[in-house]
């Protein structure tokens, strides 16, 4: 299993990701996560996400870099923000709402997208 797949599992599967910590010490790559949100900035969910990554031994400034892009409540900004994350060549994009996930989906077909929350992730775009 490649390292990106292990990171996707860690971000999307919670308890399944527990063994991932075993691999964290072996890696030298700095993983780049693009966090795309409709909100105006960090909140409790963002802090919980970062805390969970730390428990899996992914630490910002060490083996992890998170590129935050905030929509500030304006859904019309999401396509440009998603395209910016694609240009930055992040390893994965994390979203929290259907409208955000759909913007990410339209921006890339090659970067994995993890939806922390979505009403209908396979519905019409």
Largest beta-sheet characterization: 4 strands, parallel
The number of E-state strands comes to 4
Instruction: Calculate Rg over CA atoms.
Output: 14 Å
Order of helices and strands: HHEHEHEHE
Question: How does the helix and strand content classify structurally?
Answer: alpha/beta
Description:
By secondary structure, this protein is of the alpha/beta class. The protein has 5 helices and 4 strands. It has helices spanning 3-13, 21-24, 44-55, 78-87, 98-107; strands spanning 31-37, 64-70, 92-95, 113-115. Strands 2-1-3-4 form a 4-stranded parallel sheet, sandwiched between helices. Helix 4 (78-87) crosses helix 5 (98-107). The longest helix is centred in the middle third of the chain and has 12 residues, at 44-55. The N and C termini lie far apart (31 Å). 28% of the residues are buried. The model is unreliable at 13-19 (pLDDT under 50).
Characteristics:
single chain, 125 residues, 4 strands
Brief sketch in words of this structure:
The protein has helices at residues 3-13, 21-24, 44-55, 78-87, 98-107; strands at 31-37, 64-70, 92-95, 113-115. The protein is α/β, with parallel strands linked by helices and 125 residues long.
Question: Topology, pairings included?
Answer:
Elements: H1 3-13, H2 21-24, E1 31-37, H3 44-55, E2 64-70, H4 78-87, E3 92-95, H5 98-107, E4 113-115
């Amino acid at each position: 299993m490649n390292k990106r797949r292990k990171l996707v599992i860690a971000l999307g599967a919670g308890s399944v990701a527990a063994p991932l910590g075993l691999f964290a010490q072996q890696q030298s790559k700095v993983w780049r996560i693009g966090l795309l949100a409709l909100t105006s900035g960090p909140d409790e969910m963002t802090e919980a996400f970062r805390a969970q990554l730390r428990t899996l031994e992914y630490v910002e400034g060490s083996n992890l870099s998170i590129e935050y892009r905030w929509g500030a409540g304006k859904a019309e900004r999401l396509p440009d923000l998603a395209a910016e994350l694609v240009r930055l060549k992040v390893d994965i994009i994390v979203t929290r709402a259907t409208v955000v996930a759909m913007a990410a989906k339209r921006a890339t077909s090659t970067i994995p997208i993890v939806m922390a929350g979505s009403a209908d992730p396979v519905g019409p775009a």
